[in-house]
Amino acid sequence: MESLNLISSFIYKKNRDFISLIFLLFTVSILAQSKIDTPKTYIANYTEETITVDGLGNEKSWQKAPYSDLFIDIEGVKKPTYNTRFKMLWDNSNVYFFAEMEEPHVWGNLKQRDTIVYYNNDFEIFIDPDGDAHNYYEVEINALNTIWDLFLTKPYRDGAVVLNDWDVNGLQSAVQINGTLNNPNDTDKGWTLEIAIPLNVFKASYHENTNPKGRFWRVNFSRVNWDFQLENTTYQRKKNADGTFKREYNWVWSPQGVIAMHQPETWGYVYFSNKRAGEQDAFQIPKDEYIKWFLFKLHNDLKAKKITGEAVETATIILNHSLTPTYQNHETGYNIWIDSPFSTKRIILNQEGKILIKKIK
């Protein structure tokens, strides 16, 4: 009997340990599923100095403004061939961008505004001021200072309406070449650009205050770079043996994880400080943003049919809180939401991929 008790005790202990192991693995699995790479952050300082948009960035404010981290491949793994970085400033009228790009062969041939500028090497800015992943802005510029500015009602994956004829009224831009443009007989160092966008451009309603002081925007930057070939000493995008163009390189500030810039939930965070350039400030991504990232993961998985609506209502761990989303199906689609333990807000993501915020009663 004693031997039998010992065997029973051993079996119980083994089963208990096995169950504990399964529970541990399940918990780790949930944590892994809810883990999302944290987007980059940048603090844009306020300036009282008059900024002359000349592509040089010689003003004292620009000299004191910190550069961003160097760009990475869009998927967040490969190191780009050439370095890219930017700075930002703002005042009560404009938000300013300065970018510096290494490039041994600076070239371009697109000169008409609102042409598809990324068929040349270019620099691209994406801006979503209210962070709802809808109604965002894109500005592209090449080494000839050719601009393509457009407004998107939502990402392409959610059925975007693209307003290609929309213009940034009052936009100022300038490019400087550190070398020679379109000259294959020498080696260049690169090019710089400077852009000023009026804050009034971002008005969604007549009385809206677009001053960004103390706020953050979702922002990302992309640099499209092509391999080239020479045709009668003229630069062209390089072609494969079958005559098709080789794929471009996409280098970004905040990695997207996939080859897709139109995924606003993975853009970086730019915080607009009231401190002057050279003065220290701090910014932390608000905790509610982590909930939004997870809701977007569920939304994208639903779109890709990786999960069903029922699977949405599974608990996950976000910042040491166990949270269970609610899935609501209706005639025109679905809503997914989580009541935030970090604020008095219900964070909702609808079927079109738009974030909605409601106060919890």
UniProtKB/TrEMBL annotation:
GO terms for biological process: carbohydrate catabolic process. GO terms for molecular function: carbohydrate binding; hydrolase activity, hydrolyzing O-glycosyl compounds. It comes from the Bacteria. SUPFAM superfamilies: CBD9-like. Residues 53-202 form the Carbohydrate-binding domain. InterPro entries: Carb-bd_dom_fam9. It holds the Pfam family CBM9_1. Gene3D superfamilies: 2.60.40.1190. CDD domains: CBM9_like_3 (cd09620). This is Carbohydrate-binding family 9-like protein. The lineage of its organism: Bacteria, Pseudomonadati, Bacteroidota, Flavobacteriia, Flavobacteriales.
